[in-house]
Amino acid sequence: xxxxxxxxxxxxxxxxxxxxxxxxxxxxxxxxxxxxxxxxxxxxxxxxxxxxxxxxxxxxxxxxxxxxxxxxxxxxxxxxxxxxxxxxxxxxxxxxxxxxxxxxxxxxxxxxxxxxxxxxxxxxxxxxxxxxxxxxxxxxxxxxxxxxxxxxxxxxxxxxxxxxxxxxxxxxxxxxxxxxxxxxxxxxxxxxxxxxxxxxxxxxxxxxxxxxxxxxxxxxxxxxxxxxxxxxxxxxxxxxxxxxxxxxxxxxxxxxxxxxxxxxxxxxxxxxxxxxxxxxxxxxxxxxxxxxxxxxxxxxxxxxxxxxxxxxxxxxxxxxxxxxxxxxxxxxxxxxxxxxxxxxxxxxxxxxxxxxxxxxxxxxxxxxxxxxxxxxxxxxxxxxxxxxxxxxxxxxxxxxxxxxxxxxxxxxxxxxx
Length: 417
Ligand SMILES: Cc1cc2nc3c(=O)[nH]c(=O)nc-3n(C[C@H](O)[C@H](O)[C@H](O)COP(=O)(O)OP(=O)(O)OC[C@H]3O[C@@H](n4cnc5c(N)ncnc54)[C@H](O)[C@@H]3O)c2cc1C
Description:
FAD/NAD(P)-binding domain; 3 domains; nine-stranded mixed β-sheet; seven-stranded mixed β-sheet; 36% helix; binds flavin-adenine dinucleotide
């Protein structure tokens, strides 16, 4: 039976439910930072874009909500309305109890509530013409010779190209066979809570000119954090799953220690567990008509867990590729996407992986790095830049290694042995 649906012809099928016959240039599955950025860019290029998002925004997303100046600069609109705090520095707790604080005169990062940040990005996609359907969970993706189908519970949508922006548990990755899942050493588990607190309490803990807190030592191959917002603190802990031991106990110990250290009572009712990819190098991110972006593709820097910048950058690259390929109809081939992502940020991810393996693998190594920073102003600055993602990871690594070799050769030797 053929019928009209939102100005589009549709057919009702026994197997696929309602099938929308009009072919979208681009279907984006997931409306987080990667999907929303991709949809906005593609709509700006002139493509007919559909975003299918399973949640209704604003939606909760377990995240520290730390963003860098690079994120602000990568977007073509103002983030002012969703910035919670400007961040001026970092306070690091070493496994052995050293406290290292470093700040700078200008804001070197920001915090956002993901509910607000993600909603803004999705609104910005709608503003330029992307069609967004919320509450639409994609359950299957079928690649056909001339098109690609996105199947939801009651409707099947037809596209020339499809972008999987559906996060770390990507259905698109699995259904297309591009990425059948992560090994335990390629993925982390986090627990994060947004703890409501008075603004004055937060400023007492992290100063009026805010800093972020990083705790090394509660877990290996990971760390715990406290990121300040206006009236809430993101408290969290993350670890590589293959190295996970007594994770829940470490989380409880960390929260109790935080409360005692800062004389504060934390309401942890909101605590949520979530995974994040920690693969490092880029691979298995596309097929002929499908591209994975953001967490779905594994684009997170393993040493810090920073993923928002790569979600945005990969979303933009996928949109550019879709803009070039969609007009080719039967001859669509998006394979250049992976090469372009590699050129843009593979080095960042690979170096962030090697830093994670070197620095986070033992309390001994974390302590050595912290000791060097404790006694050396330049090292403190370089470590702050690394932790806050201020510079590309290669630059941060090169500066730290050079300084270690020149000023702390014994510690450098102990680090690599
Ligand atoms: C605890 C934690 C803390 C973090 N802290 C930071 C930080 O401070 N700074 C930073 O840069 N990065 C951080 N990250 C990483 C960051 O959150 C991710 O890299 C980023 O969210 C990736 O964006 P994305 O759009 O790829 O995926 P997501 O943000 O996960 O968005 C995916 C979207 O797809 C939707 N979706 C999922 N499945 C389907 C489906 N089947 N059909 C339709 N829609 C679907 C979801 O509802 C969601 O809206 C953190 C991650 C975690 C887990």
